Amino acid sequence: MEIPPKSPDGSEKSPQSKELMTSNTASTLCISSRSESVWTSTSRSKWDIYHKPVIVVSVGAAVFLFGIVITSLSCIQIKNKNVYKMCGPAFLSLGLMLLVCGLVWIPIIRKKQKQRQKSQFLQSLKSFFFNR
């Protein structure tokens, strides 16, 4: 058996093994992608499914309430009234945008979950009839 020559940087990998490493990495990336396979039937908890939109809604509501407080401070006679008049509506709009995005995200996730359940059911029917 022939021993591959060492590379100048001290690593013992040949060009062929580097090619194998990149193809292995690519297949690993495909396996660990964020989209779930239809074949996996592991059930996830509701928190695992809805944690991102719940966090976005919570942050949006907090920023929106902060904007209400800042805007209401501009009505009181204080030193930096112009700063509050500029920052208040900005926080209001940012909070409202996050709140609406989170609230729209929840029905989208529900629809995807229903489609995934239908797809898994159809796949199980196909495997039942065609694997006999």
Distance between the termini: 47 Å
Alpha-beta classification: mainly alpha
Biggest sheet features: none
Radius of gyration using CA atoms only = 27 Å
Helix content: over 70%
What is the helix tally? Answer: 3
Strand segment count:
0
- What overall geometry do the principal axes of the alpha carbons give? rod-shaped
Determine the strand fraction and express it as a percent band. under 5%
Uncertain residue ranges: 29-33
Strand/helix succession: HHH
How confident is the prediction overall: mean pLDDT? Answer: 77
Main location: membrane
InterPro entries: PIRT
Organism: Psophia crepitans (common trumpeter)
Pfam families: PIRT (PF15099)
Question: Could you characterize the architecture of this molecule?
Answer:
With 132 residues, this protein is an all-alpha fold. It has a domain at 82-107. 72% of the residues lie in helices and 0% in strands. The protein is built from 3 helices and no strands. The chain has helices spanning 15-31, 46-73, 81-130. Helix 2 (46-73) runs antiparallel to helix 3.
